[in-house]
Amino acid sequence: MIQTLNQKVSLVLAAIALGYLYLSYNLKEYPYVPVDSDLVPKVLGYILLALAIALFFDKSSKRVVPKKEVLVMAAVGGMVFLYIFLFEILGFLITTFLFILACSTFLGYRKWGTSLVVSIVFPGALYYVFNYLLQIRLPQGILPF
């Protein structure tokens, strides 16, 4: 039944999605917030599960990924893991700023002014929306707000 690499990868992704959903259903509930802290993780878990199911039934032909691109994907994956590790320590704003700036620079984007504006405005806007509009607290880390 499991014949292609896509099917094998989709089963691994489905297992990760189910574990992620299990953990998101065990998040602490907050009584006085309009949108609880488990909404976004649950939505992301269900999206990952749906994509894993779609990948299982995908009939596309085998793809060849050049070795150079595999190294680039591994480096970006390493940056994602570093982002996750530093998220609680440094906080959302600083970690996201550093991640966007480092990742865009690594991937070859050289317009420093645009990179800096995006690296500051995007996390700032998300932080404002989550903390003040949705009242979902993001880690503040070392910043006092």
Q: Topology, please?
A:
Elements: H1 5-25, H2 39-56, H3 67-90, H4 92-106, H5 112-133
Distinctive features:
145 residues; mainly alpha; 69% helix; single chain
Q: How would you describe this structure to a colleague?
A:
- The protein contains 5 helices and no strands.
- The protein has 145 residues and is mainly α.
- α1 packs antiparallel against α2 and α3 packs antiparallel against α4.
- The longest helix is centred in the middle third of the chain and has 24 residues.
- The radius of gyration is 18 Å and the shape is flat.
The string of secondary-structure elements, in order, is: HHHHH
> Biggest β-sheet, characterized?
none
Assembly annotation:
single chain
Note poorly predicted spans. none
Beta-strand portion reads: under 5%
Distance between the termini: 53 Å
| Radius of gyration from CA coordinates | 18 Å
Helical amount: 55-70%
Number of strands: 0
Shape: flat
**Average pLDDT metric:** 87
Put simply, the count of helices is 5
Structural class: mainly alpha
